[in-house]
Design goal:
Strand 11 and strand 12 form a beta hairpin. The chain has a domain of 318 residues: Alpha-Beta Horseshoe (pyruvate-formate lyase- activating enzyme). It has a nine-stranded mixed β-sheet, sandwiched between helices. It has a three-stranded antiparallel β-sheet with strand order 14-15-16. A three-stranded antiparallel β-sheet has the order 17-19-18. The protein is α/β, with parallel strands linked by helices and 458 residues long. The longest helix has 22 residues. The chain has 16 helices and 19 strands. The structure holds iron/sulfur cluster. Iron/sulfur cluster binds next to loops. The site of iron/sulfur cluster (SF4) has 11 residues, from loops.
């Protein structure tokens, strides 16, 4: 393998670290935070009528278990379970709506999982209609969904378009037969291409495809073939995530023999293979994992400084509050995070008791808010202007330790320290998680558990 300067940087900065879809990150949240705290933050949010908000719905069902999966899923074939779950989510939304009082237009609406299209088309429509009666969707809203090409039919896509879904994201991971067999996810190119074509013909505006590197038996040559097949479908956006092998947390990953996994240098080469291929094909790096064609809204938002980051990943606009429903889902309202219970049993028991099914959360304090704004600026605008953070002198004093920790990154060309602020360079965008980490006040206290709770930055 030829070690390029970029490969050297990737090796140097590869360490466990947060993805910063929230700050403070979930390991810092408290189990003391419950229903009453979440209601209080919803009531505070009720004071901003007319202001747009985001909504997320978690649909946890899958027909089979992919062995690499890192999500909380429920494997079943029984559509009666998802029918009952639709009722549960609508019960939860009704409880939240009663507290929120004034309707707020939903400007971003996202469904993830699990496999949202495990639900039958009529279940998808019933859920969307029920939610939009409680929380009206704004004209021109971004309405997106994650789908699994193995179970998604044209009838699903037609139902989604009738609801108004306009963006779609599909998992591919790798098309190689040996890799697919090892991860228990057999999905043909034809199946995926037909779904992409159907989505385009039905008018989905932005199509994202996901790849995963570091899977068992992956080698650069076969991965490059998979990437070329993905690029042939001309997605508007691409995500390429590193596989996190954590069998002590995700028991099903024990089926994957560690001897089958590419070691760190080989894993790095897989990532570089993807990076080269995306660049050659004209995609722009949005952050470590995300890429978009220059005309796509995400790339335009990154250029125009309006990119935002929340639990949905990178988004094109910031909504002040995000309301989420379903097991494990996370709401962010009035400066507080609230995460729902992880099991269906607990979720239902809490709803039966007319409680919002919150398991843990955190209300941000002033220091959290200041650091969150810094991290968001670095992750989304790739630039931090001292004047927007209390002025140059105060900033340098308050964050002296963080600025010191950034020195090696400046020497490596990942950032430029300028008179009026800090700029992330184009190469630095690939390491933006590392650049944000020195501003995280909780990370030091999480040092011993970091490798257990965070994925690696490369
Ligand atoms: S379909 Fe997605 S969520 Fe379901 S098991 Fe596979 S990777 Fe996990």
């Amino acid at each position: 393998m030829v070690i390029t300067p970029l490969a050297g940087l990737l090796a140097k900065y590869d360490q466990p670290g947060p993805r910063y879809t929230s700050y403070p990150t979930a390991p810092a949240w408290s189990h003391e935070f419950g229903d009453a705290d979440h209601r209080a933050s919803l009531r505070r949010a009720a004071g901003s009528p007319g202001q747009g908000m985001a909504m997320y719905v978690h649909l946890p069902f899958c027909r089979s278990m992919c062995f690499y999966c890192g999500c909380s899923v429920i494997v079943t074939q029984d559509l009666r379970k998802s029918d009952r779950y639709v009722d549960d989510v609508l019960r939860e939304a009704t409880l939240a709506r009663a507290v929120l009082d004034a309707p707020r237009p939903v400007v971003q609406h996202h469904w993830g999982g699990g496999t949202p299209t495990f639900l039958a088309p009529e279940q998808l429509e019933r859920l969307f209609l029920g939610l939009s009666l409680l929380f009206p969707v704004a004209e021109g809203a971004e309405i997106s969904i994650e789908v699994d090409p193995r179970v998604t039919t044209r009838a699903h896509l037609e139902a989604l378009r009738r609801c108004g879904f306009n963006r779609i994201s599909m998992g591919v991971q790798d098309f190689d037969a040996e890799v697919q067999h090892a991860i228990h996810r057999e999905q043909s190119f034809a199946q995926t291409r037909d779904l992409v074509d159907a989505a385009r013909s039905l008018g989905f505006g932005s199509i994202n495809l996901d790849l995963v590197y570091g899977l068992p038996h992956q080698i650069p040559e076969s991965f490059r073939n998979s990437i070329d097949l993905v690029l042939a479908m001309q997605p508007d956006r691409l995500a390429c995530y590193g596989y996190a092998h954590v069998p002590w947390l995700k028991k099903h990953q024990r089926v994957i023999d560690e001897a089958w996994l590419p070691k760190s240098a080989a894993k790095l080469e897989l990532y570089l293979t993807a990076l080269d291929a995306f660049r050659e094909a004209g995609y722009v790096a949005i952050g470590m994992d995300h890429f978009a064609l220059p005309g796509d809204g995400l790339a335009k938002a990154a250029d125009g400084g309006s990119l935002h980051r929340n639990f949905m990943g990178y988004t094109t606009q910031a909504a002040a509050d995000m309301l989420s429903f379903g097991i494990t889902s996370i709401s962010e309202t009035s400066g507080a995070f609230a995460q729902n219970t992880k099991t269906l049993h607990d979720y239902r028991a809490r709803l039966d008791a007319n409680e919002l099914p919150v398991e843990r959360g955190l209300r941000r304090n002033a220091d959290d808010e200041a650091r969150r704004r810094i991290i968001l600026d670095l992750m989304c605008r790739f630039r931090l202007v001292y004047a927007e953070h209390g002025g140059a002198e105060a900033f340098r004093q308050r964050y002296a330790a963080a600025i010191d920790a950034l020195s090696p990154m400046r020497e490596d060309g990942l950032i430029a320290i300028e008179d009026d602020g800090i700029a992330v360079t184009p190469t630095g965008r690939l390491f933006v998680r590392n650049i944000a980490m020195p501003f995280d006040a909780y990370l030091e206290g999480q040092r011993s558990s970091r490798s257990q709770v965070f994925s690696r930055t490369v």
